[in-house]
Design goal:
Order of helices and strands: EHEEEEEEEHEHHHHHHHHH
Helix content: 25-40%
Strand content: 15-25%
Low-confidence stretches: 296-318
Radius of gyration: 24 Å
Structural class: alpha+beta
Largest sheet: 9 strands, antiparallel
Distance between the termini: 62 Å
Number of strands: 9
Shape: globular
Amino acid sequence: MYHTWMRYFTPSPVHHRLGLVCLGVGLQHGTLPAVGPRTLDHHVALVISSGSGWFRAPDGRRRAVTAPALIWLSPGVPHHYGADPETGWDECFVDFTGPATTTYTELGYIEPDRPVVPLSDPDGARGVVGRIARAARRGNPLLEVETSAAVHELLVALRRARADVAPDGDPVLQSLARDAFKALSVTEHAARHGMTPAELRTAVRRGAGCSPKDYLLGIRLGRAKELLAATELPVAAVARRVGYDDPAYFSRLFTRRVGTAPVRFREQQGRAVPGGWSQQVPDPERPPTLTSFDGTAASGGTTAPSGTAASGGAGAGT
């Protein structure tokens, strides 16, 4: 016995320019019949949340699949899989395509060479698939855009749910982020982890989809933008705060990567607040509210009086 529900879509050429489009969604459970052998012309993310089964790769090898797990079906690659006929499994799937799949593959979010990926918790991915299923109601005028956005979210959820990723992220990436503003070379960062530069590059590329240099640069430039926008520190001081002793080199690097010079960025984005920006991330369940004229919160949340920093804020220039 099994249950199957699915919908398929045909996005227009304009929607394909969104980068990713959803071609279909399905939720099934039970002793489902085997699929394949077959070959598709698009990607499918197949999430197994309970039960077990098998997957046969193009080389003919059959491997066991035990939930929770993700099965990647890649365009042009033959595949054959099925649930255990005794226990069955619970699956959901999303078919998708688009030019952005190339970039997501390069970043390691889609793994054609790793068709079966153990997951730590499938709930986040299943929640996204559920939203796609609800968007699939007949006559939804936002269908293509709504489901396109959800495919991007699904790829992030699946990346986060991988069993080889710790709940708080990769420890190597966490350590690099903590040391990002120190004037250390990639070789020195690697040595601090007892790794060779090649091993560090492999670990960072697998965890963040980029080189250690680009990972560190992203953190440094992000902090530099905050300092330029929120403080009146000279550009040279900002450069030193984020690990660059040569302000001219920092300015050239900033301009090349951001597309505008630090001074120009400050002119466009500057919004200095006495006392600095808050470092406390708002609770999405209880977002900050407007304050009354006497500076007290109108309802719920914690909001700073006019002219002062919110609770947890960092002083200007920190």
